[in-house]
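Hey, I'm writing a tutorial for new members on how sequence and structure tokens pair up, and I'd like a real worked example in the thread rather than a made-up one. If someone can provide the structure for the chain below, I'll link this post from the tutorial.
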Amino acid sequence: MFAALARMSLVTRIIIAIILGVAVALFFPQVAPYLSLLGDLFIKALKSVAPILVFVLVVSSIANVCGWDVPLSLNSGIC
């Protein structure tokens, strides 16, 4: 079963997850608040990782434009 899921495209898996989420909310409404905890944890994790990811991408882009092959040091100026 997991091999079949691995062969599906990401869009197909997202659509299946949305349909399953709606089905759980409709057929088991008493369980839905407990499952929302997973969504809240995901959002909090995403909010904590996003600023670090943006910083790394900006620093990497600056280093790429300036042609640096070594990690940035505090002594070097911008380009």
